[in-house]
Amino acid sequence: MRTRRPDHSRAALVWLGAVAVLLVSSGARGQIVASDQGAAVLVFPKILVDTAGTLTGGVSVDTVVQIQNTSSGIANLLCFWVGANSCCGGPCGLANPDHCDPNSSDPDLNCRASGQRCVTSWTASNFEIDASPLQPIGFLASRDVTELPCNDSSSTCDAQDGQILGAGDPFIGELKCIEVDSITALVPRAITGVNDFTGSARIYASTTADGGSVDVREYSAIGIQSVVEASSGPIGDGVLCLGTNGGTCPTATHASCPGTLILDHFFDGADPFNDGDSVGTTLTLVPCTEGPETQIGPPGITVAQLLIINEFEQRFSSNRHVQCFETTRLSDIDSVPGVDPGDVTSIFSAGIQGTLTGQTRIRGVPTNEAGHGLLGISEETHSGSRGSFSTAANLHFDGSRGAGFGDTITIPAP
To answer: What is the structure's pLDDT at 236?
Structure first.
């Protein structure tokens, strides 16, 4: 990297990278949450669809999801789109298609021009996949896929082979996929060594209809493995125990979510190459706990506590509330949403910190209730005279949530 900074800046970058590598967590007795190994649960924290560019200034956005069955046998997935669309004045629906963006500074996009609030709606819809041995599957989040490859040698497929229902357009939210016994018996599996799936998501932003100018950012799905101690059969009650919580989950069926998420980043507004371009980072967080078929009304709130450390090892703190899905520019965490003059006073501003880079450590604050684990990704955008380009990255992990503070994922009974 051709940054023009004194040696102490380069040393700090090396230090941050070393810390990120050393602090990757692998829970006890083979239980791990990772983005580079097979797992029984896949989490895609950010899925975007806006093919008309309604909320993106005319830029068409879509996401390609890729899922790979790494086993030599048939494997099955139950997947949930968990939506967090927002609309002016009330929940989104056929009667209210006026989509908005609560993080925008544009008064037309954030509803202030019409004197209304931008209200977020929580939705969930599911589909099933019956994956052939070693089968990779790729699909656009905006489209239905009504016929998947057959899982045997037959020449025709039917509904028993699964289908993919698109997330909707526009859509912002996440995707969770759970390995199940079969698509007709939606019972989650937790069997020793059964961690069959990996995945990735690639977000495309195209400024022209023919894709002549495309910005692409990709991240790996976060995989949650089944624990070694799990019984050699399905989980009969349909509740996945990500660690223990002392109530619903006296024993774990899957790895505990990370205790701390680690984000290494440029501070917003930094000019790392001294060429007039600036860098900004968007953080997306989602809860580990999910019950999309049983939740009534808004999901519970998790307070994400943030510890920010700059290159001088000075420490700052902030927090953010996370319900079902939260995505925000770092500077918006402690200033008015959107690009505005207040960004330069944010603790995430390079001008305030006096250094190019830093590290933010994020954890869900434990309460007297279990289920406050968090997962997430980051997106880094470089903007300047040459336009803008971006990249996505997985967060690093440190430790796991302690006994009694586990998370649960509940799926409907078959």
So the answer is: 59
